[in-house]
Amino acid sequence: MRIAVDPDLCQGHGVCESEAPDVFAVGKDHMVVVLHPDPPASQRPAVEAAVRFCPTHALSFVDD
Ligand code: SF4
Q: Which of 20, 23, 31, 64 has the fewest Cβ atoms surrounding its Cβ within 10 A?
């Protein structure tokens, strides 16, 4: 399981960074950077919140 970002949808709102700051960062270009595409299980709840609350639905989980 890893995190996928649709760069066409990301608008740099930073909700993901707020929910899971160890996994997501928003750069000066207002584009999210996934710091850990395959985060540890301990981060799963925070990442699920980030996916759920991203206002543009740019984040998703992809099964490997
Ligand atoms: S919350 Fe969504 S739109 Fe905002 S920076 Fe994260 S991925 Fe992009």
A: 64
